[in-house]
Amino acid sequence: MNTIRKAQKEDTPELAALFNRYRVFYSQQEDIPGAINFIRERMSAGDSHILISCSEKGMLTGFTQLYPLYSSTRMKRLWLLNDLFVLEEHRGKGISKQLIAAAKNLAISTNACGLLLETAKTNQIGNQLYPATGFELESGSNFYFWNNQQTKD
Q1: Helices and strands in the chain, H and E counts
Q2: Which one of 37, 64, 70, 82 is separated from 23 by 20 to 30 angstroms, measured CA to CA?
Q3: Beta bridge partners of 69
Q4: Is 134 left (phi over 0), alpha (psi -120 to 50) or beta?
Q5: 151 domain-assigned
Q6: Domain for residue 146, yes or no?
Q7: pLDDT digits (tens, 9 = 90+) for 49-85
Q8: At 119, which CATH number?
Q9: Dihedral of the CA atoms 116, 65, 2, 33 (nearest 10)?
Q10: What is the domain extent for residue 104?
């Protein structure tokens, strides 16, 4: 049975290795020093909430990272569930559902109006997981993105 808890500074090296694998999964180049720096910065600044899954032996098996946002119309906090990753060898054991349940508990405990997430249309696992855990596909809105990393045409 895995346990879910908030990540601590001493988790940084192992968490950064997980975070690096997450990024590689999304076609980014491996960058352990960058991952360590990014995780350290998030923890130091307190601008994200990272929940980790630990095996019985204390090994990190997955994580989710949430960022606080605010809904002006609801006048409440809203959490962006930005990252969710479970090591391949630990998938199918309900860890993702445990991490999502912990994220929901965070939203409840902070009096947030909800959780928001985005996933690719091609993410078959995520597109089955999220509705199964109570998320609804938002069909009434368009999602736009402005990319500051300009490319030359």
Answers
A1: 4, 5
A2: 70
A3: 78
A4: left
A5: no
A6: no
A7: 999 999 999 999 999 999 999 999 999 999 999 999 9
A8: 3.40.630.30
A9: 160
A10: 3-132
